[in-house]
Amino acid sequence: MGWFTKPAEITASTPTEAIWAVCPACKAYVPRAEWNNDLRVCPRCDYHDRLTCRQRVAQICDSGSFAEISAAVSVRDPLKFADASGAYADKAQAAVKKTGEGEAILTGTARIDGIPVVIGVMDFRFLGGSLASGTGERILLAAEAALKQRQPLILFSASGGARMHEGIISLMQMAKTCAGISRLQQARIPYISVLTDPTTGGVSASYAMVGDINIAEPKALIGFAGRRVIEQTIKQQLPEDFQTAEYLLEHGFLDHIVHRGAMKTFLAKVLRYASHG
Amino acid sequence: MSEIDFSNKLTPWEIVQIARNPGRPAIADYIQGMCDDFVELHGDRAFGDDRALIGGFATIGGERVMLIGQRKGKSVEENILANFGMANPEGYRKALRLMKLAEKYGIPVVSLVDTPGAYPGLDAEARGQAEAIARNLTEMAGLRTPFVVVITGEGGSGGALGIAVGDVVLMMQYAVYSVISPEGCASILWRDGKKAPEAAEALKITSESLKKLAVIDEIIAEPKGAAHSDPGQAIDAVKKAILKHLKALKKLDTDTLVQKRYDKYAAMGR
Predict the structure, then answer these.
(1) What value does the mean pLDDT take over residues B19-31?
(2) For residue B189, which residues of chain A lie inside 8 Å, CB to CB?
(3) pLDDT tens-digit profile of B120-142?
(4) Widest distance between CA atoms in chain A
(5) Of chain A residues 43-72, which have a CB less than 8 A from chain B?
(6) Are B18 and B174 contacting, i.e. CB atoms less than 8 angstroms apart?
(7) For an engineered disulfide with B49, which of A77, B41, B43, B186 has Cβ 3.0 to 4.6 Å away?
(8) Tell me, what's the pLDDT at A5?
(9) A38 and A136 share a domain?
(10) How many domains does chain A have?
(11) DSSP-based three-state secondary structure for B85
(12) Residues 165 to 184 of B: which have CB under 8 A from any A CB?
């Protein structure tokens, strides 16, 4: 591997990183000040960088309106799982320390353009935004809060899928979260799903794909099986736009692709139609 | 399976091999062995008829049910036709259509689960594998008719769960049920697919472990030497277990049934 491939691998500890950011999509060097805009969208290619859950809340919710629920629900270790690189409990603790969050989703009540909602935002930094018992519990409690208060539920997904370290219990969270969504459906409470980069595996195959309205950010990776697994299975090249938001829109699985800068306005607009009453 | 010594306690990896044994009873054997009658119903009414996931009206011990389940073949030809039990979106959508039909006619659903997983293919993604499974999970949670699940062989992740959100989940003694295959888990978390036996142990995928975790409700004992050594006896045990649970579930009024199902899945991982 030649030295010229290195720039993409520059780490945060490199002094250069303080001045320049490298866009993960177009690999362009962008002045950090420009990249650190409120949206974290590449000014060159429009790539939507991954956000922390708190950054997302700040973008979407009316200022000061967000109040966290379920902060007490934290990571559990039902299998007492350990692999070659150590115990899951330690990895989970490291994720808590790194992110300052208790699980891979932050849930709470908030207002969007004055409209009261229950909102959940996944954080990919937390073990790849994986779905496990704590995550599933927070989502179910959010759905139950939406049902009780008769307020719309909005979930922003960013996840590699089910968390292997909690094994079958993670798989069961797909059923658990969908049970919560099912109740909203019966009670005619709006549920809007926003799929951000990436939304794959067990999260795409549960609550993320069954919104009344499914929205995605541009170019977000969205799919069920991993690209490599599919290539190995069918032994053929996949189209370049495979499993992108644009591909899903074309195939009928999304209502809209919405630029981050327009997301809040779009949600507010949809909510005005969705909330009967 | 001659290398497996049933006189010792089996390892999870050995149980994986038993669950995948091609001689193990498949859905065709269950239809033959436990149903007095079977009327297959085809197609998802949108795209096609998936031969990997079949279903239809069945009569089991005098009880009318809607039987659905993945299909594994006994020959290479049948396996190719049935895509080795890996359903495409139209399979899950057919299953949902049949579940809703069962709800309409007031007959219970019996789901036999045996799949390596949902098919990971280009066309499956294009037609919405994720959406099909997600839709089923959401609809099963609120389905207003009794729903009995039996994990008969491989319970492969979302592809299994896509027809397995039941009121009771039964599992054959040597079946497995997992979020990911031991090989897949090993190659990701151990960075070595050959560590599958370790992953199988850590993932807790056997009926014994899943009963302790309260993910399944009951273990159906298999003949000594496992189901493939005496399919008739194994199928009979499954039939008895299904009938016992159907009888109990049919006593519940529908609101209670659906509430209990919600409570069951809400409690998962608590």
Answers:
(1) 97
(2) 83-85, 164-165
(3) 999 999 999 999 999 999 999 99
(4) 63
(5) none
(6) yes
(7) B43
(8) 46
(9) no
(10) 2
(11) helix
(12) 165, 177-180
Which structural domains are found in chain B, ordered by start? 17-264 (3.90.226.10)
The verdict on A38 and A158 lying in the same domain is no
Mutate to test the interface with A, among B125, B261, B263 (most CBs of A within 10 A): B125
Whether A43 and A146 map to the same domain: the answer is no
- Test A175 with B121 for CB contact under 8 angstroms: no
CATH code: domain of residue A231: 3.90.226.10
| Helix spans in B162-224 (H) | 182-185, 196-203, 207-212
For chain A, positions 118-137, list CB contacts with chain B under 8 A. Answer: 132-134, 136-137
- Identify the pLDDT of residue A3: 47
| Mean pLDDT for back-to-back runs of 10 residues, chain A (277 residues) | 46 66 87 80 89 97 98 97 96 98 98 98 98 98 98 98 98 98 97 98 98 97 94 88 96 98 97 81
Token representation of residue B45: 């009414």
Asked if pLDDT for residue B2 goes beyond 60, the answer is no
Is residue B22 less than 8 Å (CB to CB) from chain A?
no
Query: Which has the closest alpha carbon to B85: B40, B51, B122, B112?
Result: B51
- Nearest residue on chain B to A73, alpha-carbon basis: B270
| CB contact (8 A) between residue B141 and residue A166 | no
Nearest CA in chain B to A140: B266
The predicted-structure confidence for B61-71, as pLDDT tens digits, reads as follows 999 999 999 99
Same domain, A17 and A84: no
Find where tokens 């769960």 sit: B161
What confidence tier does B213 reach under pLDDT thresholds 50, 70, 90? very high
Domain residues for the domain of A20 are: 1-47
Angstrom distance (rounded) from CA B93 to CA B134: 11
DSSP track, B212-267? HTTSSSEEEPPPTT-GGG-HHHHHHHHHHHHHHHHHHHHTS-HHHHHHHHHHHHHT
Contact between B202 and A82 using a beta-carbon 8 Å cutoff:
yes
A238 with B122: Cβ contact below 8 A: yes
Q: CB distance B268–A172 less than 8 Å?
A: yes
A166 close to B (CB below 8 A): yes
Give the Cα separation of A36 and A6 in Å (integer): 22
- For the record, the structure tokens of A17 come out as 């990183």
CB distance from B111 to chain A under 8 Å?
Answer: no
